[in-house]
Design goal:
Layout: E1 6-8, E2 23-25, E3 29-37, H1 50-67, E4 75-83, H2 89-100, E5 108-114, E6 124-133
Parallel strand pairs: 4-5
Antiparallel strand pairs: 1-2, 3-6, 4-6
Helix pairs in contact: 1-2
């Protein structure tokens, strides 16, 4: 039995390795679901720029995972929501994911452009699922 996830980018699918894996086969173990994280800081202030909110949201996920004794490299899936999305947002997103995940172990991912999040000030939200091998 494997104790780490397998990250696959099979021939016949677009090369997405800079941003995500096309398929992640999770090991058996404990699944950790992290609620949508945004640009909120611990003092309830919100990062003012979309880029700042992206960085803060990824940091918030790291904090949440650590509370569950999980790590970013155990994330198998993420869903990203971006308000007023443009392709320019991909560069900041690529920097955030590169800082969090080894290039050969990107989680499976879905990006959803949205018109609005829970508050007008929020421009970015990410939710992740991790698996702690059993």
């Amino acid at each position: 039995m494997s104790h780490s996830a397998r990250h696959l980018n099979p021939p016949g699918l677009m090369d997405s390795r800079r941003f995500f894996s096309q398929v992640v086969v999770a090991p058996s173990g404990t699944t950790v679901y992290v609620a949508g994280q945004t640009g909120y800081r611990v003092d309830r202030s919100i990062a003012s720029s979309k880029e700042g909110q992206m960085v803060q949201a990824f940091e918030n996920v790291r904090i949440a995972l650590e509370a569950a004794q999980a790590r970013m490299d155990q994330v198998v899936s993420m869903t990203i929501y971006i308000v007023d999305y443009s392709e320019a947002d991909l560069e900041t997103l690529a920097l955030c994911t590169a800082a969090c995940f080894p290039a050969h172990r990107m989680p499976a991912s879905t990006l959803v452009p949205v018109p609005r999040l829970a508050r007008d000030e929020l421009l970015f939200e990410v939710t992740m699922t991790a698996v702690i091998p059993g």
